[in-house]
Structures are given as C-alpha cells and as structure tokens.
Design brief:
853 residues; 8-stranded parallel β-barrel; alpha/beta; homodimer
Chain lengths: 853, 853
C-alpha cells in the first residue's frame, strides 16, 4: 500500500485519505488553479505510524524520500541544493480538528541553503528572517520549546545573523542536540511530530467531545513554499467570495504587500481592503476575482480563500466554505438557490440552527468589547445580549428604561419583573432553571449560575470579582456565552426581514413535523404566529394565575379549609380564566389550542414575604398564623414528585372541573361569534389508566353539564401528558382512553434519570467535564434512555389506537438535535417557546431532508 | 338450565355454583353427617336474576316452588301447614364476601303456623319468641328497617303476643304493606333481597378492594330450621377441632343449652366450655367429638363447627376451616404433616404471612382493650404492639424503662432514641416514612401520620382528641392497625420457639430465592441470622455514620472546602469504617456481604439545631456563620433527585475510595485471621454505563493499591444498584461492566411513578379510597409498571451477561406479594430488614410451591 502521493497522483482519492486541507488543494490543482506543488502523507500513513509504535516505518520514510525526489524534479529545486526547495508542512485531518499541531513554514532552510537564497535573491533580510522564523516554528511546534523564550532571545539584538546563532545555541541547550541541518531530517521530524500530536490530550478531549473516532488519523501536506514577503511585487491576503456578515454578493477581503500570512493574523500592520489591489496589481486582482468565482461555482458555496503573490505571480494556498453570520447564511443560501447553484433543500441544510437566536436578539459589537471591562462569567441561560441598569429587585425596575435583573434566583412571582427587564442574571440555577426557561420563553437574554456574584444583604449592590456593582450601574450581558461586562457594550442590531420570512416559508413547505408554541397569553400568540407557529402545543393555565390580581383568588382557593370555601374561590377564578381562554382562542382563530390543566404544587403559588402573607390574611379573613401554618403544611420534601399535576384533581376534582368549564364556555362563546376553534385539553402527570379514567369521567360529566346549560356543544379532544416512566410503560392502556399523547420531556427526563433539574447544577458540569454525559439531557433529549421510553410509548399507543396523535411540549421541542430525533420517531408535532419557533421550523425541515436523502 | 337443587341432587356440583356455605353443607350430607335438609338457589340463578332486570324470572320462581314441594315431602312438614315447615335463608357466595345481607331464621312463621307450633310443642313462649325474631329479622334484612326501632317497640311490654301486634303494625306503617303471611311470598322476598344485596355499595367496594369479579354472584341456601331453644334437651354451640390460639390437638369450644346460635354471639348468657357437655349430654358429646374428627380428616384442616341440638338430636349447621393465631397456624400445620394428613408444602401454603409479625411482637389482650380509653388512630407503620411512657424527645428516654417516642417526625439523628424506645408514634409521614422504615428494620412497633396529635410547643404534652397526654403518661399503641390507647393494655406474649425454627427450616429447604437481610451492625446480623437470613443484601454504610461520635468526622468531611480538608476528615473515617466492616464480616463468617457505598445527600448528615451547629463550628475550627452558609448551600429543591448516590463519587471520588479501602482492608484482615468472606460492593443510583465505568475505574485502582500495599488480595464483586428507570432501560450496557444487579425498588418506584414517598401521604389515601390504586406501590411492588422495568432489566442484563446475579434490596424484599413476583421473575435473592426475614423465607417457599403446582 502506498502512503505518500504527489498532488497530481491523488485526484481520485477522497478526504478520508488525503485530509480536508489536502483534498481541497488537490481539487484546486485538478481544475488547473495556481497552487504551489506538493505531496501528501495520507491518513493510512498515520495509522501505519501508530501500528509501528509511534514511529515512521522505513517503507514510509522511503516513500517520503521518493516523493521529495519527484517534487524536486517537478519544481526544478532541490532539498539543501543551490536552488533550494523550501516547503510548508501542515497537518490536515478528514474533519476539522483543533488541538493538533498545525503549520511549519520554510522547512528546508539551513546554514547553507539560507546563503544560497541570499545569493539567488539578493535579499539577505528576507532570507535571514525566513530562517529565524523556521527555527522558531520548528523549535516550538516540533520540539515543544516555549515560544516566549525565543522572543526573549531576540530583545536588544539587531543583527539577524546573531539571532540565528543565539537561537541555535538555545535549541541545543534545551534539546541537547544541534539544530538539524539536513532538510530530510527536518521533514521526517516534522511528519512524526504531526502524527504524534494526533494523540495529545487536547486533541483527545476534542474528539471525545464531538464523538469523533480516534482511528481516523490525520494526513500531512508538504507543499512548496511561496513567499509573500519576497519583494514589493509580493503579498498575501484572505478573501470571502461574498460578504460573511451581510451575505451580499461581493468579493470581500484584505491583503498586505510584502508580508506573509501570519502578518495579517498578528495585526502588526493594518491590511488594505481587497478592492485596492485592483489599483496596485490590477492583473493579479482580475485573476483573483476570476478564480474566486470559479471556486464558488465549483464548491457551490461561499468560499474563504487564502492567497499569496510571489514576485508578481498569484498562488491560492487554501479554500474552504466560509464562516458567516446567521443572517448571511440565510441570505447566501437563498441567493445561491436563485442563482440555480443549489437546491432549496441544500440551502436549508446549511443553516446552523444553534446560531439562529442571534437573528432575534442581535449581538455585541466585537470591536467595542475590547474597550469594556470583563467582570465575570455565568452559564449561558438564554441566547441573546442585553444592556441595562442593574436592578436587584423587581421593584427597582422602572418601565420605559432598560434594566438587567440580577437575582439570587427567580420564582414565578418575578414574572412581571422579568418581562420588564431587558435581561436576567441569576446567581443560582442552570440552563434549565426557572429563570432560564422563562427567559427563553420570552426570547430574553439570560445568564444563570453566576455563583461568583455576591449580592450584599442590603440588596443595594453586588460584587463580582474585584468590582462592586451598584443598583443603577450599567452592565452588558451575553446569553450566548455567559459573559458579563461593565458599562454598555455597543450592539449589532437584530435582523428579521422578508428574506428570513421567505426562508421560513420554504422550511414549512418541506417539513413534516407540525411546529407549535408554548404560549399562555394573546401577546405570546401574536409573537409565535409571526414566527410561523401553527398552533399552541402547551398553554400552561397556571401562568395566567400570576397575572394582575388573579393570584389572590388562586391563593384563596389554595388556603381553603374545605370544599365549600374552595368552590367560592373557584367561582371567582372561573370568570377570570374564561376570559383568558376566550382571548387566546380568538387570537388563534382556529389554529389548534392545547390547554394543560393545573400542574404545579400549590405551594408555588403561595406568598413568600411577610407582607404578602399579611395581605392574604386580610384578603381571606384569616389570621396571619393560620396562613403561615397552611403554608408550612403545603411544604414538600420533593415537590417535583409531590402533590401536583392530576394528583391535585384526584384530591380536589373541583379545580379541573372549574378549568374545564372555563375552557368550554370560552369555546362556546367563540362558536357563537363564528370564531373557528380547534381545542385539545390535556391532563398532566398521569401515572396510569385508573387515574386518567377517574379524572376524565369527572371532567366529561362537568362538560356535559355545560353543554346542557348552553344547549350547545363543540368538538374537543381530551388527552394525557406523558411525562412519567410508568405512563410510557403502560401507554397501550392509556391510549385506549386518551385522544392524544403529549410528551412532557422535561419531567420525563427528570424521572428517568432521577435528576432534579434545579439541583443538577451541583454536579452536571462535572459530568460533562469528565465526559460522563456528552450533553445536558435537559437541553438535548437523551435518545438512548429517555428515547427508549418515547419509542415504547409510541409503539404501545399505536397498538391500541393506530395513528394516535403524539406531540412533544417539553423544552426539547425547541432543540434542533431533539427535533431531528422526534422527526425520526414519527411524532406529529413539537411545541416550544414562541422565540424558538423559527429554529424548530428550520430544524424540522432539516430533519425531513436528511431523512429523505 | 336448572337453578334450584336439593342438597342431595348437588353432590357433583362445585363451589362456584353452590357457594361456599352451600357446598360445605352438601358435602357434609354426602358423607352422611346429620345436617338439616335443604336446597340451594345457585349462582346461575343469581345471574339470571340480574339478566331479568333484578327480578326473579318466572322459571326460577317455579323451580323454588317445586323445590319447596320436595323439601316438604322429605321432611313431612309443609309451608304454612299443620306441621309447619320453617326454614333459614342464607346467602353464600363462592368466596367469602362481607357486606352482603346474611341470614334470616324461622321463615315460614305466620299468624297461623305460630299457633300450630304452639299446639304441637306446647311451648307458647318458644313459638312466639321465634315469631318475634323472624319479624324483626325479615323487617331489618329484607325491608331495611332500622333494628333499633323494633327494640324501642319492645320496651315496657311484657306480652309476646302484644309485641307481635305492635311489630306488625309498625311494619305496615314503615312499608305501607301488611307483614307477608304466605311463607312462599316470604321466601321469594328473601331470595330476591339476597340477590339484590350483591350489588349494594359495601359489597361493591369490597369486591373492588380484593379484585373479586362482579360477575360471580351469590347462591342462596334454604335449610330446614332446627331449634336449640326448643327445650332443655336442646342447645347450640361452636367448636374448633384444635385450639385456635395454641394449636394444641384438643377439641375446643363452647355451648349453651336452650339457646339459639345468636345467643352465644350476643353474649347475654355466658356459654359453658364444651367438655362440660360430656357430663350434661354424654351421648351427644361423644357423637360430636366423633363428627369433629371426621370433619377434620375429611377437610384435612382444623375445622370451625357450628352445631345445634334439638330435643336430644345433634345437627351440624356449618363447618369451615377455622381461623387461628399465627402461632397456632404453624403448630397445626406441622402437626397435620406429622399426622400424615397433609404435606409440608400444604402446611407452608396455609400460612398467612401478613400475620406472622405478631409472632415476634405479641399482641394486645383483646378483653383488656375494652377496659381502656381509645385515644385515636394513625397509620399502621410497623407491626406489633407496645406499651410505655410517652417521651416527646429522645433525651427524655431513660434506659431500662419502657417508652413510646412521640415525634412530629423522625430523622436519622433520632436513631438512638428510636432504638431505645419500645414503640414510635409520628404525627407526619406514611407507611414508608423514615420512622416506619427504621422501626420495621428494628422490628419495633410504629404508628405514623397520626395528624390529630397536636404536640404543644413546650414539648411537655400533646393532645389527642379531647385528651391531654403528658410526658411520662403511659399509652399503648398497636402498629397492626394504628390504634392508640391511654394506660397500659395487657399483652399476649410473643412466641418464637423450636416449632417455628423447624418450620422455617422446612421453608428454607423448599424455597429457591435466597433471603438476605438489610443490616448495618453486628447486632443486626446476629438477629437476622437467628431468623434464618443467608447473608447481607444491603449494608448501608451511612447508617454507621450516625453511631457514637462518628457523625462529627462525617460532618467535618462534608463541610470541607477543598480536597485537602476532605481527605483529612476521610482519614479519620477510614479507621472507623474499617473497624465496622471488620466486625460485620467477622460476624457473617463467610455468608455473603453486600456493601452499598455512600448514598444519601450530604445535608442529611448536617446538624439541625443551633447547639449542634456551634459544636460543629468548634470541632472544625470554623465560624458559626460559615457552617450555616455551608448548610444552606447544601440544601436542595428535590433532594431525592439531587446530589446523592454515585453522583457524590463523581464530584468527590475520594469518598468512595476511602470506603473501598476500608472494606478491602477489613476483608484482608479477616483473611489473615482465617475468617472466610464473601464480598460484594455496590454503587448506588447509577443512571448509565459511563457513570459506572468512571467510578469503577477509580475504585479498582484504589483497591489495586491496597492489594499492593498489603502484598495480598481477595476476591470480590463490584456491581450496581438498579434504582433508576434509565439504568433499567440500558441494563444491557451496564451488565457488560457490572458483576451483579441489585434492584433498589424503593427509589425505582419513586422515579417510575414520579412520586416522593415522603410527600405521598397527602394524596395516596385518596388514591386507595377511590380505588385508583389497589395497593400502595411502596408496600407491594407495582408489577405492571415498575415490574415492566424489572423484567426489561433482567432480560437485557442476561443478553450481555447470561445468568447475571440479580437481587432486590428495597423494602419490597420483605413483602410476600412482591416476593412472589420476584420469584416468578427468576431473581436470585431478596433482602429485607432482619425482622422480616422469616416472613420472606415463608413467602419465598410459598412462591416456589405455587409456581411448581
């Protein structure tokens, strides 16, 4: 088996053998673009190296030697000769693999060849500088010597020759060996080092993290050097074939004359915008624009191209699909479709859904960030960025001004304050804490678990790191990565234009999964519909309970000592809830509406402050002590597994009866007004069929009464949340009585794993760090464990009721990885917060396309 | 199809058709015992009655009439005639069915036949009394008139004739009809009423409760009356063929001359012991003893016989297997085996395991109960009875005196107090609360959830109902039913003798499931071994943490801010734990020892009182504030699903490393001293294979080090608790790495149902009451839901590791119904608290026998 190939021998070979970088170079040579010649040691060679106890087998060494011979023949230069062959050596794996060693330039230089180059080019400075750079790169990358030490060597020394001597001596002192003078030795060292770096710790961790096989290995690209720093007819540059920020069709780039690629990156000199090259070297510019077009058409995507001009001659050093902003990714994809370069499906598949939230929230201006003081870091709770005054309590927030709410943690009582704030920071809690969940639902930026914030007991300031931040001070927060800055960071604006809307309509035409929203108010519904939602998959009736003064009637109902008292309070609530449901149904105007009956344990609704306890005592004509006692009675050891969901309806059937009445009366009112309705009612936290039947019977009886009183009726479905393992295990029985299933994947994940989301923050980071969990199962569905229950429930459900409608209303309904899984499983719909609806629509379309291909 | 049969036509028919009572009478007639003649309306007849809209079809009425004709022929008496036929009418379903109407005597009496009887017997009083009783019974049972009203009629009236008139008038006033005079009408009314009562509410609830089909129906037995109150050669009695309390082989009973069966029950006259009959009516006595022997041999079990003597002639009215004390049930079973009447297997199958706990705890003297004041009722938490002084805190308990600990709830800190108390009462908590679980483990009587107890804030007294009970007052508590009495109720002593031990050894020979104990101390192990335990299935290392002063080092370890501090505290604990393990292994002397590594969340170990916080601050050289802050940091929303089990070992691997070191060093010490050991180490709360592998590697590395340091090694197994749905769903992967599985069915039930045991008290009673749950799933395993996960885990486990050892160490391991399920599932062992070991052994043997048959 051959392990070393010249570029022109490898046209038929694939990326798995040549590596990504190598394959692109070979491909460019194949279509006759100006590429410095070279050869590739393949990934097969890398595996042979491992088999041979991590050293190059003689056969491969011989092949490399033979390869160099042929490269010498092709270039007319020789390794260590009069016209010396200099090469770059780069690693290039089949998949992008940060963590490995990367690039060595100018290999082939030694004490002799450097003089030959001086005499051939008459440019001593260029040659000596190249040698210095080679010694530094080789020492650092191959031998692992700290770069900083070399920089020290150079200080206060003016002669480059002197630097070379000092460097070489230093090399010997550090390694015990002379700096290698034989270019072939240099090359073999370099190849071995690159292969060896495949197994360094950083690369290993990276592969584990992204589930990349440890066996694929890397290739090594050995390519003739071209020098942008050779003379004033030389230069180097980087360009995108379209604007990576706006997506506009215009070649967009920068260049520097008399410079090597590194010089642009290092930022010592400011590069020129590419169009200036049209003036400076017009022929080269025209040639480059032509090549850029060829490459974009060839790869059918926007390209990110590196080039070098050596003494008036253009060389392309690299091309790859260019990174772009979420906005540009949509614009470019749609333009490429309109240019007939790609299909709609391809355009959709190219969208990275994880970046879409930036479209709705904007982002920090990267440049301005550098001028701002970084304060500290929490967990990214909800995507987006926000700038505002610090508010340490909801009461500090004044309407019409921008605030960042900073709290130890948030609770349902903070909803109003959260809705007024621009962004939220919590000291406690993870990505699935109350704060984060609500913030994502509101499309608001949020940082959670910023445990280094110490809020002062006076609640007038907090400290973060060494900075004291007072209420009213301005901070800027980044929910994409958890960063917190002092003062106002400049913002790039959000973009959500007609392009985007058209793109979403493409996705809707293609996808199979219905995408609904989790929404509790008419405002939610307006937002969600504008984002493309096709109905409501989860209307949490309890969220309405916190609005305005409703909470006091809710509390009165909870505090009730007996059914009579409870009924009185429920009567008040009936009127309020009926109005809520009517307004929502009207706004939906026939789109499906799925209402979940009361789910959380009572104590979540109870007052927490002394002041509110006093108010409740007044409101209900009870004593302060009595209210406190009742609150303590309602406290639970494990509220997540306590007296909640349908269990409340077993002990107090009148609550669900009231809610069913409110829903049905609202629907009848709509019918009277010729507003179309599609209604589903859902019972949460069902553990088995007896429980469901018991509640179903009571609800249906109540609804029959409402129909009778109104001499009218409507169609509706009555179904179950599937959020407990037992319900999934017995889904065949449940399907016999239930019109549909809605998977509550949050609670199902909690119970299947036995992990409380609220408490997981104490250990889940360790799990991810130590690679015990690849992903947080509360963000992306655990397909192997929880997924088994979903599959079982679907199979069993269909046994009893073929084609039973099944949806997902947990937060996973807005997560692209999970959506793909739900699509593959053949579910009917997902439901997520309104601000995640576009993401879900794109992800659903992508799932459909990848399943079809 | 025929629906009415005379006794002598029905010898071939079964209990399902004749009912239990009917079948026994027919059987006695078949073997020529003196039975009053009669006929049976079958359960088929009952079903016809339902089909005919709850009224008797004409065909059946005709059959009943024909049956009466033949009975008249057989007895020489006629319905309503000169020599009047009087009958008893009783219901008799195929299974024992409380809640239905029962017995009507003397049917056939009317204004005319009562006179005929007077003239035939010359006993006006007897005849009139019989008529009065018939009117009362018929009115109450058939017409549903309140018995008390008749009793009022009788007050201050001396003439029986007058009573009859008043009764009849009252009957007419209540029902609007004359008291029926036609005996056939009387009979048809009675039969219809009995059939109708099959569907009364009480019967319905009973059938739901015991999963009895609603379709089986009841039969009606119509039998010629015999009168024990006829004259002084008449009488009535009840006898057991063996002593139902001691099991001794001696006919044991009571009788009254000139009385009907009711008179014995009513307790108006004191009955004579049966042997006195040998003096009063020696021939009858001899005949009875002979019949008793025949019946016992015929039914191959101790019989409970009702008899009546009418004018010097003996009649047997009923025989059935006699109820007996748990002690007698063992003694009688063993004696019957020795008498070659039954097999060992039959003797074992006859034991009601739910009553066995009385053997270890004794019971209240029933008679003495009537003299004591009943205070109130809680939930039966742990079987047994106890008498002692009230202690409202553990500190009030003085050693050497009997105390009942009464607490709002118990916590691990109360362990010592609980172990000193005779019994425990808690205001909060259910049958699976901490108090109940620990009490059962200790074999101690316990009542939980007695919410009507109000403990005064001074903690010097409590009120229960209208009684104030002070500390030091004596109360008596019954853990079998939750009853609490004031003062000391007399006790019957517990019995656990050589009979019992031999019986257990029979069971051990037969059973297949190994029975182990959940035990944490050498004392536990001595008790468990004496009860027959075959090893330890669950040694909860954390229980040891509460003993003596160990808790302070545990707290120091928890409070540690970093690994260094934690390691220092762990070093102290290592020495203490090693000693614990050594003592336990020594006591076990080669029986299997399964140690579970640390499981509960840290905060369970932390001090709860200010005083203890101060002590911990001193002990660890920290500030009071610092300790309080740490305690608050460790607080969790849902500790059951929090940072516990192996999650502690992922974040702090040094804890399990210390425990593994302690266990292995203890085992090596045993090996040195030639003490045999069988060691299993088990990791709790595993959710998936990555987690287990991560911890396993660290533990094995540590153990390898210990082996190296000691230049010695031992065999041991390392396995997983299976207590989370996800572990069960992925058991195939886990089995690849785990030596064994141990189902933790408590936590598995909590997570599968999504129910926190601690909080379930608020709603689980409603669930049982409303028949949504047949049984508390924390007491008997939920075979349909949780069982599916167990089955799945076993199947998947065996796919990867055929024959993998699987046990159960949840509390279900001591529950007979659950044990039967585990046996059927083919598990290897169950483990339960030492005091439940004999129950588990009997249940395991029963499971094996019923599976074999």
């Amino acid at each position: 088996m051959k392990n070393v190939f010249l570029f022109n021998e490898s046209y038929h070979m694939n990326k798995e053998i040549l590596g990504g970088k190598g394959k692109n170079l070979v491909e460019m040579q194949r279509i006759n673009l100006p590429i410095p010649n070279g050869m590739i040691v393949t990934t097969d060679g890398c595996r042979e190296y491992f088999k041979n106890n991590n050293s190059l087998p003689t056969l491969i060494i011989d092949e490399i030697k033979a390869g160099i011979k042929r490269l010498e023949l092709a270039t007319g230069k020789t390794f260590g000769g009069e016209n010396p062959l200099l090469v770059s050596v780069r690693s290039g794996a089949p998949v992008s693999m940060p963590g490995m060693m990367d690039t060595i330039l100018n290999l082939g230089l030694n004490d002799k060849t450097v003089e030959n180059i001086i005499s051939r080019t008459n440019s001593e400075k260029f040659a000596l500088e190249s040698y210095v750079r080679f010694i530094e790169m080789f020492s650092e990358i191959v031998m692992g010597i700290d770069k900083e030490k070399f920089h020290k060597n150079k200080s206060n020394i003016s002669s480059l020759r002197e630097v070379i001597e000092i460097h070489k001596n230093f090399f010997k002192a550090e390694t015990g060996k002379d700096f290698p003078q034989n270019p072939l030795d240099q090359l073999l060292f370099a190849v071995e080092s690159i292969f060896g770096s495949w197994n360094n710790e950083r690369a290993d961790i990276y592969r584990n993290l992204y589930s990349i096989s440890h066996d694929i290995g890397t290739a090594v690209v050995v390519q003739e050097m071209v020098f942008g720093n050779f003379n004033n007819l030389s230069g180097t540059g980087v360009a995108f074939t379209r604007n990576p920020s706006t997506g506009e069709k215009e070649v967009f780039g920068e260049y520097l004359l008399e410079a090597q690629g590194e010089d642009i990156v290092a930022g010592i000199r400011t590069p020129e915008p590419l169009h200036r090259l049209g003036t400076q070297l017009p022929e080269i510019y025209t040639q480059f624009i032509e090549i850029a077009n060829i490459l974009e058409n060839h790869y059918r995507d926007m390209q990110d191209i590196e080039f070098t001009i050596e003494n008036g001659k253009l060389f392309i050093l690299q091309t790859r699909n260019g990174k772009r902003s979420p906005y540009a990714s949509i614009k470019i994809g749609m333009d490429l479709v309109n240019e007939n370069l790609i299909t709609k499906e391809e355009a959709i598949m190219r969208i990275d859904t994880t970046l879409l939230p930036q479209l709705f929230t904007g982002n920090f201006d990267e440049k301005d960030l550098k001028n701002k003081k970084f304060l500290g870091k929490g967990l990214p709770g909800s995507a987006g960025v926000a700038v505002g005054k610090v508010a340490l309590s909801c009461h500090s927030i004044k309407e019409g001004e921008d605030y960042i709410l900073v709290r130890k943690e948030t609770s349902p009582e903070d909803i109003k304050g959260m809705s007024l704030a621009k962004g939220i920071v919590t000291v406690k809690g993870g990505a699935t804490s109350h704060g984060a969940v609500v913030a994502r639902g509101m499309g608001k930026c949020c940082i959670t678990g910023c445990e280094s914030i110490k809020i002062d007991a006076s609640e007038k300031f907090f400290t973060l790191g060494d900075t004291v931040v007072k209420e009213g001070d301005i901070i800027s927060i980044n929910g994409f990565n958890g960063d917190i800055y002092l003062d106002a960071v400049k913002l790039e604006p959000p973009r959500l234009d007609h392009n985007f809307r058209e793109f979403i309509s493409w996705c809707k035409d293609i996808k199979k999964l219905q995408v609904r929203m989790n929404a509790d108010t008419p405002t939610d519904i307006i937002v969600g519909k504008s984002f493309g939602a096709e109905g409501v998959g989860l209307c949490r009736t309890e969220h309405m309970f916190f609005e305005d003064e409703k909470i006091w009637s809710v509390r009165e109902m909870i505090i009730a000592s007996n059914k009579e008292e409870r009924d009185l309070a429920l009567e008040k609530l009936l009127i309020l809830q009926r109005k809520d449901f009517y307004e929502i149904l009207k706004e939906l105007s026939g789109c499906p509406m799925n209402v979940r009956l009361l789910d959380p344990p009572f104590h979540e609704f109870l007052p927490k402050t002394e002041k509110d306890i006093v108010k409740l005592a007044d409101f209900t004509n009870r004593t302060f002590e009595n209210i406190k006692e009742r609150i303590s009675e309602l406290k639970e050891e494990n509220p997540m597994l306590g007296h909640r969901g349908c269990r409340l309806a077993v002990t107090f059937p009148e609550i669900y009866e009231m809610q069913a009445t409110a829903i049905i009366e609202a629907a009848l009112q709509c019918k009277n007004e010729n507003i179309p309705i599609t209604l589903e009612i859902m019972i949460p936290f069902i553990g088995g069929i007896s429980e469901f039947k018991y509640i179903k019977e009571r609800i249906l009886n109540k609804i029959a009464l409402v129909f009778e009183e109104n001499s009218d009726s409507i169609d509706f479905k009555l179904g179950t949340m599937m959020e407990l393992p037992r319900a999934c295990l017995l889904a065949d029985e449940i399907a016999a009585e239930s019109d549909f299933f809605s998977f509550g994947t949050n609670d199902l994940t909690q119970t299947t794993y036995g992990i409380s989301r609220d408490d997981s923050i104490k250990f889940i980071d360790f799990y991810k760090e130590k690679n015990i969990m690849k992903r947080d199962p509360f963000q992306s569905i655990d397909t192997r464990g929880v997924g088994k229950l979903l599959t079982l429930a679907k199979t069993l459900g269909n046994e009893t009721k073929p084609g039973i409608k099944i949806g997902v209303c947990g937060e996973h309904g807005g997560d692209p990885k999970s959506i793909e899984y739900f699509h593959d499983l053949g579910l009917d719909y997902v439901s997520c917060s309104p601000f995640r609806v576009p993401i879900a629509i794109v992800a659903a379309a992508q799932s459909k396309i990848s399943k079809t291909n």
